[in-house]
Design goal:
375 residues; alpha+beta; two-stranded antiparallel sheet
Amino acid sequence: MNVNNIFKTITRSRTASIYFKRWRSSEKELVTYDPFLAKPKKTKETYLEVIKMFEERDTRRRGHVEFIYAALSRMKEFGVQKDLEVYKALVDVLPKGKFIPVNIFQAEFMHYPKQQQCAVDLLEQMEDNKVMPDSEMEQMLLNIFGRRGIPLRKFWRMMYWMPKFKNLSPWYLPEKLPVDTLELAKLAIQRITSVDPDTKIDIWQTEEIEASLDKTWVVSAQSRTQQVLLAEQPPEEPLTIKGPFNVYLKDQVVTYFILLGKIRPEYKDDTDLDDVSNIQKPPGIPGVIGRVTLPQVKCTVHEQDDGTIVSVCATGTSSRDSLLSWIRLLEKHNNPILANIPVIFTLVAPPSDVSLFDAQQDSNEKKEENIAPKN
């Protein structure tokens, strides 16, 4: 068997549509050629250009399943994982009419299972990225797999459930989240503190505190009820900063911290309501019998089992120094009691993949510090 026959056998066993086999002139070895990897610009236009090249290369669309799987794995790299047009272009790669079952046995035993599973995986990736299909995709799947195809059943289930869950959350988020970490922190703090409509969100700069080391921003939230609860804290009982905690905004993660105080003692009324031996008349209302004690004080939404939340914040660096600046800024803005109450830091260092700061700039600084001079 000569070299040409070996090459033909290899290209028949594994399609040459997405991974082209080429010979190295010197060592005569096979190397893999990826058309998505060969594109220097990772944009939507170049992604669609590769799909068009595949469609024009072979009218029989050989290797379309492998091509679609390879294209799905490259979506995040090109930034098109949430683009409906790109998904429809990949569905259009599948040949039309060949996979439609013609009898009940083909319909129930999954006619062309490899192709149908590929289409189902594509729809599942759309569902994971919260991309809702449209009627045009339904018609495309109908022309490819027929009404009894598994992908069309998957499409119908998606169209039933996805509109129900799309606007189910009471916290509105824009379709495209802002890139600025400060805007993300504002959205996160608004979501956390929405339990109290009276909450006021302030944006401060740590430069206001002369002794601050980290020059960053602080997004702080506190309501008038929390200010009263903080003013009632006993000076001998320390406050505690707990965190970091994570809040998810779609695929973005923001870390936040809470300032925790002591729980107020619960008011207990041990009076027996059924005891009529000593009935007292309320003063000033003769002839009327009733209770003269004050009603039981109800706990606010800020008073939890482990403590009273008196404030919430997110900082640009999530560091101990930025949190110390946050306490001093709270003291400066209508919380003078913080000058007399000790504060305990119980936070741990946040992981690098969820902390809210400019990760790229920080990593570049670390690389510059770790580069050793070459001799």
